[in-house]
Design goal:
Layout: E1 17-20, H1 24-35, E2 40-43, E3 55-58, H2 60-69, H3 71-80, E4 82-83, E5 92-98, E6 111-116, E7 122-125, H4 126-136, E8 142-143, E9 148-154, E10 157-162, E11 167-170, E12 172-175, H5 182-188, E13 204-210, H6 211-218, H7 220-224, E14 227-231, E15 234-241, E16 254-260, H8 262-268, H9 278-285, H10 290-304
Parallel strand pairs: 1-2, 1-12, 2-8, 5-14
Antiparallel strand pairs: 3-7, 4-7, 5-6, 9-10, 10-11, 13-16, 14-15, 15-16
The protein binds flavin-adenine dinucleotide (FAD).
């Protein structure tokens, strides 16, 4: 499919922009600039576009922003977006629940609050969303194997320097090169405290579980709609991703499980093991609840189904 004409119109602005980093931010920004007929070149360190990780949730603000950038961007998102599966939960962002019994004062799984918002909980598989954005990008805009190492600003703009020795000049540079941004480091200087990402004391473990297994373990309501379970120093959240069918027509809804546990690692500076920390915490938290017995098994299942990238 050729990119829509709104991204291939003659460019009309007397300046050009370099976007460094071709993740979700960089690609979406590049499309937004093209839509405004602004000359833009995208530089990506990797040999091709590609996403690691699985689910990413988009709130109403992000969805509105996508519509404003372009109806094609929003349509691409809609094609791969998964919402809560129950019609009655369409506008629910999360059901917040107790994940601990709080000394027998609460039933594990008891609802604390339902937070509703326009569009409800909407998530996509990152790679699928990125693919949709890539389809919209005209040829010749993205340059791969271009790792930015340095840049210098002068009265005429900015000169970008890449690892392979190439240098290019643009009127402005926008860094979308992720959490370990080289652009940010060069701009602020290596010694600036904000130049490097630092460990916040929070970690997350994720597992993906085929929906039929999740329903078997948790029941329909919990498995097919977004849930957030709070416990001591941690929380568990689950939501659906991937509404599509596999090539052989099998059901492929997946459930993403994220466990966060800030306290233990901030003291020791070590990253705890999932067995000791995340999944065990779920087990402990859930010891009293019938359905949360299922969640404990779900946690184990998550361990048994690691993602190949393992980065998320
Ligand atoms: C477990 C987990 C769950 C998350 N859930 C959510 C969520 O639900 N909702 C949400 O909004 N966010 C979520 N996030 C955060 C979200 O994933 C990131 O904020 C987002 O993916 C960042 O996108 P990006 O395009 O800014 O950066 P990236 O995806 O990191 O892309 C950066 C790109 O720049 C390239 N690059 C890097 N350095 C250079 C260089 N020197 N030169 C050229 N190219 C370079 C990289 O190769 C990469 O392609 C989650 C993150 C994690 C870890």
């Amino acid at each position: 499919m050729a990119p829509p004409s709104e991204f291939t119109q003659p460019l009309s602005k007397p300046f050009n922009i370099a976007v460094v980093g071709g993740g979700i931010s960089g690609l979406t920004l590049t499309l937004a600039l093209l839509k405004q007929r602004i000359p833009v070149t995208l530089y990506e360190a990797a040999p091709r576009f590609g996403e690691i990780g699985a689910g990413i949730a988009f709130g109403p603000n992000a969805q509105r922003a996508m519509s404003l950038i372009s109806p094609y961007v929003y349509a691409g998102f809609e094609r791969v977006a998964t919402r809560n599966q129950w019609p009655s939960k369409k506008e629910v962002w999360f059901d917040f629940r107790y994940g601990e019994s709080c000394g027998d004062r609460r039933k594990v799984g008891e609802k604390i609050y339902t937070l509703e918002c326009e569009g409800g909980s909407t998530s996509v598989h990152r790679a699928h969303f990125l693919d949709e954005m890539v389809k919209l990008l005209p040829d010749g805009i993205a340059n791969f194997n271009k790792r930015l190492v340095d840049f210098a600003q002068d009265d005429n703009g900015v000169v970008l320097k890449f690892q392979d020795g190439m240098e290019t000049r643009h009127d402005a540079l926008i860094g979308t090169d992720g959490i370990r941004s080289r652009v940010r480091m060069v701009m602020l200087g290596e010694n600036d405290p904000a130049a490097k990402a630092v460990f916040s004391g929070k970690i997350a473990y994720r597992g993906l579980i085929p929906m039929d297994k999740a329903v078997e373990l948790l029941g329909e309501e919990y498995a097919k709609n977004s849930q957030m379970y709070f416990g001591l120093h941690g929380h568990v959240l689950t939501f659906c991703i991937e509404k599509g069918k596999t090539m052989n027509g099998m059901q492929c809804f997946l459930l993403s499980v994220i466990l966060m546990h800030p306290a233990d690692c901030s003291k020791s500076g070590r990253v705890p093991q999932p067995r000791k920390l995340g999944f065990a915490a779920v087990g402990r938290s859930c010891a009293n609840g019938e359905d949360v017995q299922g969640l404990r098994r779900l946690g184990r299942l998550g361990q048994e189904h690691p993602q190949p990238d393992g980065n998320d």
